[in-house]
Structures are given as C-alpha cells and as structure tokens.
Design brief:
135 residues; alpha/beta; Nucleotidyltransferase, domain 5; 4 helices
C-alpha cells in the first residue's frame, strides 16, 4: 500500500506516490482538471493500491484558508471524499517556490512543476510524521 500526494490546481493536478516503505515521495504524473479527471484518478488508485491521500492546502501567510483553499476543499468534497479513503490536508505554502521550481523553469521543464510540487507536499507530510514518531 502507498500514500498519494496531490497538488490541486485549477487546470492541473500533480500526483506523487510514496515508495512501498512509505519513506520517500516520488513524482508520478499530472492529470488535467477536466471531465476525465475522475477516471484517470480512479485508475491510479487501483493500479497503485493507495491507502491515504495527502492534499496540499494553500493556506494564507496567516495560516488561514483563503479563496484558493476553499477551491481545494470544494474539489476534495466533489471528487475525493466519496471514495471512502482517509484524506489529510498538508500545508503547501512555498512548495511551488522551492529551488526545483526555478530549476524547472530555467531548463524549460515547467510542465513538470505540478507533480514535483505534489512530491514536495507528500515528502513534507512524511517528514513531519517521522519527526512526531521519533519524539
């Protein structure tokens, strides 16, 4: 069983998955946020044996849920909550501004930003969980 990380955007959704030991986040794919999303999403769930989904939450700088955060919550309610899987929101502030973003833009690989952002979100969750368990 694996954990999925998601970076939800208005046009694209970045997907990342853990390794089988649930210690490392690996960029997986990008799904267009369109009418075919559900079919593609369900296929990944089936193919990869997902047990939990980590959703990037774009909190404001004051750690409040702003307009973008409300859009993410609405998306999750419409497309994900009905599948009966645990969903955890992970703070995604600054993930798209990490050095990988600059590297991808500089090297004309911008189309990969969404799945790498999802990987950063998922890795942040895994690291936080490991710190809590180590204490």
């Amino acid at each position: 069983m694996k954990i999925m990380g998601m970076d939800i955007g208005e046009k694209r959704i970045g997907i990342a998955l853990t390794d089988s030991d649930k210690e490392l986040s690996i960029p997986h794919s990008i799904i267009k946020n369109d009418r075919y999303f559900q079919k593609k999403f369900n296929q990944i769930l089936d193919d990869e044996a997902i047990e939990k989904i980590i959703i990037g939450m774009p909190y404001t700088l004051k750690k409040e849920i702003g307009e973008q955060g409300k859009k993410v919550i609405d998306f999750v309610k419409d497309k994900i909550l009905g599948i009966g899987m645990e969903v955890v929101y992970q703070d995604e502030r600054f993930t798209s501004k990490f050095p990988v973003d600059g590297y991808l833009k500089k090297n004309k690989l911008r189309k990969y930003i969404d799945k790498y952002s999802a990987a950063l979100i998922l890795q942040s969750y895994l690291d936080r969980k490991k710190r809590v368990n180590d204490e």
